[in-house]
Amino acid sequence: MWEQQHELGAQKMYSLCSELGGLFLKAAQILGKPDLAPMAWVKRLVTLCDKAPATPFDVVRDVVEKQFMKNFDDIFEFFDVEPVGSASIAQVHRARLKLSNTDVAVKVQHPGAEHLMMVDIRNMQAMALFLQKYDINFDLFSATKEMEKQICYEFDFVREASAMERIREFLRITNKKPPVMVPRVIPGMVTREVLVMEFIKGTPIMNLGNEMARRGIDPSGKIAAMAKQ
């Protein structure tokens, strides 16, 4: 009986957060973790980590052209209109650059997502101030301000690209064979809203358990322990 109730509740939460977007979508992604929610909720909400509602291709095309100030067809030889994945802030498409014939991943922000998320945070901050004044003796407002700062970072792809390159270089100089592959950022193809990087084939983290089993990797071994972290 409880399992059926959990499945019903998870579906309602999925539909609600998908429709509202913004911070609600981010919250659903966080809630869809095995250590936070029943398995019925995890199975439904975890799909929002890479299968959240996507931005139509025509809009993606416009965003890319405006950000790079170039004709879309002059940039890409090939561009898959179906995203590899879509989450709360952006979606990723596989493409091939026209000049270098390089396979790339193109990360494009959902238009309006940042504004919507900031509106949600402002509402949360107003509620935090109200609760602090009339109900609880705890600094909720500072926590929401820190959340605001961190989410703003996530919308800055220039900052993200810089961090990727620093990590990639650190791994290169400290390991003969780096244990982690970090995609190379394509020079000159980074703006605050669009990030182009080399495309690396891999296994989605949600499918990691099945892939480890297929390869015969011991789930109690070091590799599995690293993956769980």
From TrEMBL:
This protein's record includes keyword DNA damage: no
One Pfam family of this chain: ABC1
GO molecular-function term, one example from the UniProt record: kinase activity
Keywords: Kinase, Transferase
InterPro entries: ABC1_dom, Kinase-like_dom_sf, Mito_struct-func_regulator
Domain ABC1 atypical kinase-like: 48-209
Coiled-coil intervals, chain numbering: none
UniProt-recorded name of the protein: Protein kinase superfamily protein
